[in-house]
Amino acid sequence: MSLKDLPLPQKLKNLSEIAKKIAQAIHQNQKIVVVGDYDVDGVVSCAILYEFFKKLHYKIEIEIPNRFSDGYGLSSTIIARLDCDMIITVDNGINAIEAAKICQERGIELIITDHHTPQEELPEALICNPKLSNDFPEPEICGACVAWYLCAALKDEMKLKVQMVEFLDLLALAIVSDVMPLRGINRVLLKKGLEVLRQSQRIALIHLREHFSKYNLDAQLISYYIAPLLNCAGRMEHALLSYRFLVTDKFSESKQYLKKLLDLNAKRKSLQNTIYEEAKEMFLAQKNSQELPFVLVFKESWHEGIIGIIAARLSEDFLKPSIVLTLKDGILKGSMRSVSVDCMQVLEANKEYLVAFGGHIGAAGLSLRLENLESFRMQLMKFQYQQGIPMQETRFKEVLGRLPLDLVRKDLFRMIQDFEPFGQDNLLPRFYTEAQIVDVRYFGAGHSNVKLQENGARHNGLAFFKDLRENVGQKIGCIYSLQWDKYNQDVVLNLEHYEFL
Q1: Residue 190: count of CB within 10 angstroms of its CB
Q2: Concatenated DSSP letters of 286-303
Q3: Phi, psi of 279 (to 5 degrees)
Q4: Can you say whether the dihedral through the CA atoms of 161, 166, 172, 174 is positive or negative?
Q5: 423 pLDDT band (50/70/90 cuts)?
Q6: Where does the record place the RecJ OB domain (predicted)?
Q7: What count of Cα atoms within 13 Å lies in the side-chain half-sphere of residue 199?
Q8: Entry pTM
Q9: Could you tell me if 387 and 156 are in contact, meaning their C-beta atoms sit under 8 angstroms apart?
Q10: HSE-up (13 A, CA, CB side) for residue 442
Q11: What's the mean pLDDT in 148-168?
């Protein structure tokens, strides 16, 4: 599949009609507001629409909710402060039942573009969602991809001369950040998007390339570094910071935004490590924790913007669906993550205990009243989860095989790179070996640069969020992937999981 094989915008249900409505609003000089979300997908969706409309010389307003004061998605709070004729949601809105009613009452034309899982009741609005589009071949595309398709439909409707490939540098950030399956449409768009990203003249992307110049600009760099950096604004303060960074055309402004993002991200990492250790200790202290089918932890002081990351790390550590909750204004707010269970299916089955919920198969948000917590916990115990796979077996099922250190060479790395981009459903190849730690250099925010030795062969490895200085001389069995060290011009091992032998 290549770009020319991508399905046409008309394949997305209602998109042609939506394009006609927006074109009509433009011709009538109506005021249009785009309402996004506070994660990378939502921010990029807003940036794509802003950049597209800028090419039309038509001014639109961008509204991104504040996680802490507005909550998720289009809400009555947001609508109350908007003075407009049309609202277009991106990366949200599929569950905005009440918001749609308010828009009707106020005479605001509401257009919803989203990709999250629809529930039984839909808002009274014109909706485009790949999960509601039977003719569209890939239901799992990100919100920014729907926004990109919306721009393509509007281009066709208004017979504009706009190259849609120009926006793929931005779209690449969202595809990786939202962990889309890298098959078909997503794979084609990301592969081309990475090419565009490496040459992009957007000031923000120039600065990101400079800042991360010692790394290869690939899907792993976006996943491990760029996406968390852009996400930290919405987690810690307001996502408008990331949005402004992406769309500004002023060099000095962009530098200032990047510095603020880097400072916020450092705070986020420190806070995240503290909460993670508390949450992990709390779960392990529960009776028979290893036999529980899920992780559920709660502390009212935990930072609302961090708990999604904590849930993800707990899910990866214990290979169980994980829910992390905090308390705000008498309501428990939380995030659910899972590597094997459909989060939305679990929450749908227990919705009687919830105030609200929404999300994807592997990630969802939820809220419930404090008095319902124990009932909710008991119902989670009764849910029919998939038969669990032993942790060790699960760790190894995605390992290609045993690869001794003397076979780790540049030619092998180059061969692996031919299969890029790697991500969901096209996993980066992982290998296993057993080696001795002969030296450790501690660096950064709790990371270790490890020198490993196996049968006389030595190689450098990286262990993130681990201090292994006290383990010199010990032998480990480790699962690792390969990455390129631009500074030393060599291949290094990324130690993803290890056990002492």
Answers
A1: 29
A2: STTGGG-SSEEEE-TTS-
A3: -65, -40
A4: negative
A5: confident
A6: 402-495
A7: 8
A8: 0.83
A9: no
A10: 10
A11: 96
